């Protein structure tokens, strides 16, 4: 469950970075009142913690999927 939450936050962060890079538009800052706003900083921090958490996904054993054939 925690893995899915972390991945969802990374998707939000990735979309925000894409908007920032392509359109110079920070969606999180727009929604929560600027980059320095308390709620924006919470979202940025949660995305960063999620990224650190998701590093562990590289080292977890994956369940074997049944063959599609």
UniProtKB/TrEMBL annotation:
InterPro entries: DUF378 (IPR007211). Keywords: Membrane, Transmembrane, Transmembrane helix. It holds the Pfam family DUF378. The chain crosses the membrane at residues 7-32, 38-59. It comes from the Bacteria. The keyword Transmembrane helix applies. This is DUF378 domain-containing protein. It comes from Ruminococcus albus.
């Amino acid at each position: 469950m925690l893995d899915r939450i972390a991945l969802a936050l990374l998707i939000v962060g990735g979309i925000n970075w894409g908007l920032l890079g392509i359109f110079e538009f920070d969606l999180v800052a727009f929604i929560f009142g600027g980059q320095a706003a308390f709620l924006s900083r919470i979202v940025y921090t949660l995305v960063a913690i999620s990224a650190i958490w998701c590093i562990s996904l590289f080292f977890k054993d994956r369940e074997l999927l049944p063959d599609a054939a």
